Structure to design on (205 residues):
């Protein structure tokens, strides 16, 4: 019974995003963006707990699902807060959000220029003092197991193709953005088949 209750409350929230909630890095006075929200796996708890949440995804089907979820959990929530848009070309104004979520999106970049466009957009809409939480595939710990295809895209041991970063690149980007890590870079390796890295950056005021 408890598992059902937890599922209803938190859905399939990313465990590292849940960690940010536990640490108090996401609060109800913040305006939050889930950029590349998919079907809303990270939104259930935030919506039903009264957080001010916006979402975007390039999939119309995914956004319709999020809109239905929002209407179900928060009757006063506006469908306009979930939009069909590409991450690299968002229509939000500069410095609109206190906390930006990018979960399992950036590794779909086609090449480094595309990756940089997405990162710059995420940074553009973040307020000074705001935080970017990103989860993305990396080569950290499986460098010898991935097969390069060019343009920083690789075939992973699990057969998937991803744009991969490493820790040095993430640190260079953090420096170029004039940001600062508010969490150490953390990587989870899954049975030597793939790995996901958590990159958490604060925008200096």
């Amino acid at each position: 019974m408890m598992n059902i209750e937890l599922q209803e409350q938190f859905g399939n929230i990313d465990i590292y995003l849940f960690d940010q909630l536990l640490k108090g890095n996401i609060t109800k006075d913040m305006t939050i963006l889930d950029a590349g929200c998919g079907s809303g796996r990270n939104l259930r708890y935030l919506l039903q707990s009264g957080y001010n949440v916006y979402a975007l995804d390039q999939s119309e089907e995914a956004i319709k699902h999020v809109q239905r979820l929002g209407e179900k959990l928060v009757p006063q929530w506006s469908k306009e807060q979930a939009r069909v848009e590409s991450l690299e070309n968002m229509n939000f104004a500069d410095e609109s959000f206190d906390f930006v979520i990018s979960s399992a999106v950036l590794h779909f970049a086609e090449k480094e220029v595309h990756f940089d466009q997405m990162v710059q957009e995420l940074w553009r809409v973040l307020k000074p003092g705001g935080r970017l939480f990103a989860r993305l595939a990396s080569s950290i710990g499986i460098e010898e197991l991935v097969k390069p295809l060019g343009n920083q895209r690789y075939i992973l041991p699990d057969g998937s193709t991803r744009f991969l970063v490493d820790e040095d690149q993430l640190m260079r980007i953090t420096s170029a953005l004039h940001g600062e890590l508010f969490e150490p870079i953390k990587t989870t390796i899954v049975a030597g088949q793939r790995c996901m890295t958590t990159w958490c950056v604060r925008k200096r005021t």
